[in-house]
Every structure is written in structure tokens, then in C-alpha cells.
Design goal:
Length: 245
């Protein structure tokens, strides 16, 4: 594919740019130990917390509730996840719940993310197209050194992926046509929704996002415009294409 018409790369963040599972597990471990959950596998708790992610957003997508920031949904989901593992959140000081909720602001990037983004930034506008809210994206970027040109959170679109508005309003905010924007993600479903909206697509494999037993999104399921094993390889493809013109 010719990349000369693409001006911006927008990125899924949780799982594509940062390792949410290990980051949440790391912060959950001492919390669980303090509150009677010492026998709970922290990674399993991270999975339990994440399992409420899409269902909680669906209440917004379906119109059952007005748009609220992901921080709010994560906080509600944290209480549900604690009940899942036998901990009553009513017995935990709210300040501790609030602090653990900020684990999502303190996630580590994949080893290739920062350097790969810096290379891609030399040619393209780079920005998150995440379900995360702006403050979450800001805190994460400052801690992890993610070199975004702009911070775009779900508040910008007032919609959660894979709603078309999430993709189309992001392109509009950047002053671009959808075809001038490429969605980068480790999730085939995210890319399929972006393609339906006219965006270009790039699949980056993250085969351990869900742990060593991951069974989904191991391979590209469509002929995406680019497929790469990491951000360095993606930069090789996209910047090489630009240099060849």
C-alpha cells in the first residue's frame, strides 16, 4: 500500500501500546494481600477486572446511561471484580480503592513502544485513539514517556469503540479525512470497525497481552494495510515505504 496519503497514525492503547495485565497485577498484589485476598492470583484478578470492561462500556454504547469517563467505569468495575474474588469493597477504605483504580494510569509500555513511536512520529502525527479518558492518557504518557503529538481520549468523541463515532470524530478533530488516518491496534475487531469507517489499518501482534495462554488476536484475520510483530517493524514498513517514493 502507498502511505503517502496517510497523515496520522492513531493507536489503540490498552494491550497495543501498554501491557495492562502485568501492570494491574503488580499493583493489585499488595492490595489483595492487605485485604484478605492473599491467595488470589494477581494476574487472575487483573483478568477479572478487565472482564467487566466491555460490558460496562456497552451500557453507554446502548444509550442505557449517558457517556461517562473510563475512570468512572473502571472504579465501578473494580468493586465488581473484588466481589468476584470474595472481597467486600465496602470493607475497604475508599481512598485505597481510588488509588488502585489509578493502576490503569501507571501501566508500562511494551519494550518496543517508546522507540517505535518516536520513529513513527518523524513522519506521521501520532495520537491515541483509546477508550481511555484524557487524564488517564496524559498520566500514562508522562510516566511511560509516550511521545504523542496529541492526547485524544474518549471524551473527544463522546463514544466508545467500536462505535463509528469514535473513529470518525477523531479524524474530524485532527482535520483529516478518514482515509488519511491509520488505526494501529493489536485487536482485529478494532481494526475491522476502523476499516468500516474508511480508516487505513495496521495490525501489531501482542501475543501475550492476555497472558501465556492467550488464544485471540494471535494473527491478522483480514488483509490489513500493514501487519507487524512490533512497533519497530511497523516503522520499518511505513518509513521504508515513505523513503522509497
Amino acid at each position: 500500500m502507498a502511505w503517502d496519503k496517510v497523515q496520522a497514525l492513531v493507536f489503540d492503547v490498552f494491550g497495543t501500546v501498554v501491557d495492562w495485565r502485568n501492570g494491574v497485577a503488580r499493583e493489585a498484589q499488595p492490595f489483595l494481600a492487605r485485604h484478605g485476598g492473599g491467595g488470589v492470583d494477581p494476574a487472575a484478578f487483573a483478568d477479572a477486572w478487565r472482564s467487566h470492561y466491555s460490558p460496562s462500556m456497552e451500557t453507554v454504547r446502548s444509550g442505557l446511561r449517558p457517556f461517562v469517563r473510563l475512570d468512572v467505569l473502571h472504579r465501578e468495575n473494580l468493586e465488581s471484580a473484588l466481589r468476584d474474588v470474595g472481597i467486600d469493597p465496602a470493607g475497604v477504605p475508599p481512598s485505597e480503592l481510588d488509588d488502585l483504580n489509578l493502576a490503569w494510569h501507571r501501566l508500562d509500555p511494551w519494550p518496543d513502544s517508546v522507540a517505535g513511536l518516536a520513529r513513527l512520529k518523524t513522519r506521521f502525527i501520532i495520537a491515541p485513539l483509546s477508550n481511555g479518558n484524557i487524564r488517564l492518557m496524559l498520566d500514562m504518557a508522562k510516566r511511560a514517556g509516550l511521545p504523542w503529538d496529541a492526547i485524544l481520549g474518549a471524551e473527544v468523541a463522546q463514544a466508545y469503540k467500536p462505535m463509528p463515532e469514535a473513529y470518525l470524530r477523531t479524524a474530524e478533530v485532527l482535520g483529516l479525512q478518514p482515509s488519511e488516518v491509520c488505526m494501529v491496534a493489536a485487536h482485529n475487531g478494532d481494526l475491522a470497525a476502523a476499516r468500516q469507517c474508511g480508516l487505513k489499518t495496521a495490525f501489531v501482534r501482542r501475543p501475550t497481552e492476555h497472558g501465556p495462554e492467550q488464544a485471540t488476536d494471535l494473527q491478522a484475520q483480514q488483509d490489513w494495510d500493514a501487519v507487524a510483530d512490533d512497533f519497530g517493524a511497523l516503522a520499518d514498513q511505513l518509513l521504508g515505504s515513505a523513503a522509497a517514493r
